[in-house]
Amino acid sequence: MTRGAWNPDQYLRFRAERSRPFFDLLALVAPCPGGRAADLGCGTGELTPALHRATGAAETVGIDNSETMLAKSAAHAGDGVRFELANIETFEPRDPLDVVFSNAALHWVDDHRALFSRLAAMLKEGGQLAVQVPANHGHPSHTVADEVACEEPFASALGGYRRGVPVEEPEWYAGLFDSLGFREQSVRLQVYVHHLPARADVIEWTRGTLLTDYEKRLAPGLFEAFLVRYRERLLPLLSEAEPFYYPFKRILMWARK
Ligand SMILES: C[S@@+](CC[C@H](N)C(=O)[O-])C[C@H]1O[C@@H](n2cnc3c(N)ncnc32)[C@H](O)[C@@H]1O
Predict the structure, then answer these.
(1) Distance separating alpha carbons of residues 116 and 129, to the nearest angstrom
(2) Does the domain at residues 8-256 carry the CATH identifier 3.40.640.10?
């Protein structure tokens, strides 16, 4: 399905920082003993069993469209947890679900009105939707990537592609949940504070996520040149203080039908 830009080893370099929002989101979900849950964009699947145990579901399916990420998932399957290579945009659960959960994945899917409407329709009455999406697109670590994508030779090689930002404001999601008929909801913006050893480590961070989108679209040599340009432009915008303070905004949302 997707070309191999997702690299589990690079992604998991910041395992502790990346798993914290997962558990903050999970804390919002009420148990649904014997029910069915889905983990959309489950990555390596290493966190999916925690979702399964917390909900007490009989069956939890983790889906992801990256073969490289999902290759690690077999070790986490069993006892009601299974994994499928599937695209969030076309995924259809076999039966209505008690919990639709997604940590740090839906910002890769466009048109959140259509997407969330589809996810809401997968839920049983009383079912819960729990989603965490990064909202750090205004930080230089993200805006500089877009600037470099607009420069030559990258703009031509990318065919003019620019990564859009499908993530909306928190209150937009609250309004959407209300219009979709959810009876309860909680939507919040949370700033996660990370202390990275030095400012250059921000590049290691974005290489594991945001920059994979450019990596999969550029020839290897050109992606290396992209990284060099990104580094040259980004580092002067960041503090030299060590450890480096890296604030990261995320939206955590939960709603029940
Ligand atoms: C940042 S990782 C998050 C992984 C996991 N949820 C976690 O919390 O560690 C994002 C994952 O979303 C997956 N993804 C992105 N777009 C997707 C899509 N359209 N369908 C399925 N998976 C997708 C990627 O392959 C990647 O594994």
Answers:
(1) 9
(2) no
